[in-house]
Amino acid sequence: MKGNVLVGQSGGPTAVINSSLAGVYKTAMERGFTRVYGMRYGIQGFMQEQYVDLADHIKNELDLELLKRTPSAYLGTCRYKLPEIHDDKSVYERIFELLDKLDIEVFVYIGGNDSMDTIRKLSDYALLTGARQRFVGCPKTIDNDLAITDHTPGFGSAAKYIATSTKEIICDAMGFSYNKKNVTIIEIMGRNAGWLTGASALAAGEDCEGPDMIYLPEISFDVDTFVAKVKDLLEKKDVVVVAVSEGIHNAEGKYICEFTSGSETKDAFGHIQMTGTASYLAQVVSQQLGCKTRAVELSTLQRAAAHMASLVDVNEAFAVGGATIKAADEGASGVMVVIERVSDDPYQSTTGVYDVHRIANAEKVVPRDWINKEGDGVEEEFLDYVRPLIQGHLNAMMVSGLPRHLSMDLKNYAWSK
Ligand code: F6P
User: Fold this and answer.
1) Do 98 and 59 fall within a single domain?
2) Domain annotation covers residue 387
C-alpha cells in the first residue's frame, strides 16, 4: 500500500498552475497513492498545519476540468525562504515531523526558481537524515526564467495574453491617430528576464504593425536615448506603441521603476516589487515631447488570464504535474520535471527530470543573439521559439456570461455537490 502525497503551490501564480495541480492529483490517484493533501499557502502554511485532503474538494472529473480553467493558486501560495539547514535545523525537524504524521511519501512543490530552492533544501535534509520522503519540483512561472527546461508552464498563456492585449492596445491607439500624436507604453512582467516582453512582438502580422520598440531587461536602458528614438518616430508617424519590461535598468544596474515611489517593498528572496516603469516613462515623454501619452501596466492580468490560456500550455502544465508523481513513484528525489522540445513543426514536447541543484535560484535570460542589434526588438529565432507555445484554446465553462472557476474558500459554493 502506497503512502500519501503532499502538494503545494508557491511564488507568483499563472493561468495554468492549477492544471499542474490537477495533473498531480489525477496521476497520484491512478498510481494508487492513498491520499493527496494540499498545503494551504505553500510551505509557510503547511508549517502551521494548514492543509486539506484534496478528495474533499475535487469530487469528480467536472471539478478537475474546472480546476484546469481556474487562475491563481487554488491552494494559496507564499513567497517563503527556508533557512539553510546548518542555520536552523529546528525548521526541518518540524516539517519532517508533520510529513511523518501525515504518512507523506511524496512531496511535490509547484513553483519557480525560488520555490525549487525549497525542494533542494528538503531533499538535501532527507538525504542527510535518511528520511523516506521523496521531493520533486514541478516547474511553473510566467517569467520563463527556469534553467534547463525548454520553457515553463504558465509562460505560453501569459505570452498569448500579452500578444493579444498588445494588438488590442495598438488598435485602440490607432483610432486616435487623426491629427493627434500619441505614445502608449506597455509594462510587462518578467523581472530580469525578457521572455514575456519579447512575446509582445507576436502582435505583428497582417492586421497589426506590432510594437514600435521592445525593451528587454537583458540590455541596459538609457532614458535619453529612448526619448530621442520616440521623438524620431513621432516625426514619421502619429501613433507610437512601446513594450517595456518591468525589469529594465540603467547601465549602473538601477531599475527604472526605482526612479518612482512604490518599489520599496521586498519579498523573502530580496526581490523588489517592480511597478511604475511605464508611468515613469510616459511622464518623461509627455514632459519632454509634449504629446499625449498613456501607460498600461498589464500587472496581474497577464498571469491570471485563464480565459486566454493556451491549450498547449494547459496540456503541458497537466503533463508536468503528472510527471512529478511518476518520477517520485519510480524513486526520484531532489529533481525537477523539465519540458524537452522534440520538434517545432509540428510542435511536440516530452518531459524529463533534472537535478534541482542546477535549477534552484538560477535565472535563464533571453540569449543576446535573439535580441536585435539596436536592443529594441527581438529576432525571428525568438518568435519561432515562442509561437508554438501560444497555440490552441481551452474553452471556459461559462455561467451567466462569465467563466466559472473552482473555489476552495467561498462559503455556500456549490457546483457539483
Ligand atoms: O515571479 C513571477 C512574477 O509574476 C514576476 O514576473 C513579477 O515580478 C512578480 O511575480 C510579481 O510578484 P508579486 O505579485 O508578488 O509582486
Assistant:
1) yes
2) no
The pLDDT-based confidence of 181 (bands split at 50, 70, 90) is very high
* 378 domain-assigned: no
Q: What is the value of pTM for the model shown?
A: 0.96
Find out whether 279 and 92 touch, Cβ atoms under 8 Å: no
Q: Show Cβ contacts of residue 207 under 8 Å, excluding neighbours closer than 6 positions.
A: 167
- Same domain (yes/no): 117, 196: no
Ligand 1 site, residue 194, Cβ cutoff 6 A: no
Ligand 1: residue whose CA is nearest its atom 14: 12
- Please say if 150 is a catalytic residue: no
- Both 107 and 48 in a single domain? yes
Helices 89-101 and 113-129: crossing angle in degrees, nearest 10, is: 80
Q: 336 with 269, same domain?
A: no
Helix (H) or strand (E) holding 39: strand 36-39
Residue 361, SS3 per DSSP = coil
11 lines ligand 1 (CB under 6 A): yes
Total number of domains constituting the chain: 2
pLDDT digits (tens, 9 = 90+) for 214-224: 999 999 999 99
CA 191 to chain centre: 11
